[in-house]
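To fix ideas, we reproduce below one chain and its tokenised fold.
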Amino acid sequence: MNEKHIKALIEAVKTDIAKIAAETATQKTLEEWERQKRIQVKARHDWRLRNTRLLLKNYRLLKSHCNNSVCNLQQAAGVENAVDILDALNKCSGDVYIESIKNSVIKTSVIITHIDEMSEIYKIYCERSCKDEDERRYRMLSAAYLEEDKKTIDDICKQETIDRRTYFRDINDAVDKLSTLIFGLDGLSDMSQTCH
């Protein structure tokens, strides 16, 4: 073999090594990107689930805030400016404070209305599934979070004739499904991606 063939062979080997290195680097980069994407999807799902639990935990308090606020939703939506709210309150001063109350009532009312609508859809879903455990899960969710008179875990377990482990498993499932309804299609796609 002459020197020209050896140099050509070395160049061919270098090209092959570079090609293999590039393919390997590309594959590793794609794998890392997919891993990071899965982590982000799971984090977003976990965040939504945590927020759903937080909303449910405080549901009665938030509903009371809307129902008993000095400025109800109709007043807040119909008021043109903070001065009108100030006149209605007679006690408060400051546009920022008044605007904050107005915005709080509006936002809280929208969230509570959305939770009410989605929990009603979840109830219908559970009733139509014709599965006793789905109907039980809705009853438990309602008793634990939505009904005016909150029941304890022990009361719910006794009423449903289940143990505490079943309670927590069922509540987790119910909250997960309700979270999907609350966050819509985006919540559903998050859940389906975490299952792969």
About this structure: The helical segments are 3-57, 59-68, 73-78, 82-89, 95-129, 132-146, 153-160, 164-194. Residues 79-87, 89-94, 189-196 have pLDDT under 50 and may be disordered. Residues 3-57+131-194 form one domain. The two ends are 55 Å apart (CA to CA).
